[in-house]
Specification:
Elements: H1 6-21, H2 33-50, H3 60-77, H4 83-107, H5 110-138, H6 158-168, H7 182-199, H8 205-218, H9 222-242, H10 246-269, H11 274-282, H12 290-304, H13 307-312, H14 319-325, H15 340-363, H16 369-384, H17 391-402
Length: 412
Amino acid sequence: MRCISRENKVATVLIIILPILTSYQSPVAALGIGELVLLVAGIISLPYMLKNNNITIYKYYYFIFYSILISLFVLLIHNTYNLSDIIKRLGVMIFYTFIIFGFADKLFNIDYGLKLYKKLALFSAGFIFIQTGFYYFFNKVILGILPGTTLNYSISSYSGLYQKYAGMSDILFRPASFFLEPSYFAQFIAPSLLLILFTEHTKSTYPKAIFITVSMLLSTSANAFAFAGVIWILYLEIYARHNNGISKMIKIFSVSVLLFVIIYYVFTKIPALLSVIERFNLIGNGSSGSANVRTMKGLMFFNEINIFEKIFGVGFGTYYSYIQNNPVNIPDVQDEYMSSLGYLLTSTGLFGFSLFLISLKDMVKSYSKSAKALVLLLFVYSLSSSVFSSPVYVLIITFVLKLKKENDKFQY
């Protein structure tokens, strides 16, 4: 790896640790520590970034422009809608757009970033094993969150978070490593599994990949199971297409059998993981379970809005104003949380969502299979998680922008 400048190294570190830092509340309301640090770093780095005059105009900018336009238009025709909610949502979206396409695109070093991210992911995965061991051997719940800190979460104190996980551990033990929820851990670590499989070609590739996969299963997050399954299926399919020899096929079969044995062993030894399957079974049945709400609520909301709104959207930050003025029959209606797919469809309509998909395709200019696989993984995220304009979203899009064909294991 070539020597990189201090600016590139600092920027790369900040992007990689952003999902962890944002778990903690900063002195500025509504901003996590990671977001505040990146905002300050971005402002300080502006002169450095502006020295480089080759500005790339991404099609993502058209999506952002449309998002702002439709939100302000909706506000114009519905003057009772909450202006502060709309401004807040648009501000978050613009902030993350600047971080990705201004700060990260100019300063993130892909070689250093890959190395650092994989190390941090393995460390996070290892802590899941420690948490699991402490619980099952010593009946003790340990968190990976710093005590005495204010959390950027619905539960703002360490003691409150500890009581939550300790209280539910008798029913279902759910380790989350250094994150506030197992699903946040799953969102952070899944891209590392993909990148290890798609960019490494060493003897340690499969041991590391299996280590991370098992840690994802131990988190008991339904998302983790889905993400791991998609990544392995995608990898084995591409591996099979690029390696037609008998020995290669035997290796694929062996890895598949080993994964099946590991998953079966983990399930039989930790019966609590069966609850994950139960949560999958709730999807689509109209229940108020978290998996069903995350996956179906946004699509149900999209089905409720009129044809004009389906095409052009209801704008960002309008959800609470909308449900106050229109009868809506969806589960958990008082909470805006929904999947990114549902959120983007309802906020920008089919037209805006099409712009978003076009912008994702535009980002993968390097023909890197790893980058294309990350875009697919991001789409899987959007089916069940709210990741749009989030720290994990920044991490994934940054890798999509910076990965090159030379980073791939599969070069043809």
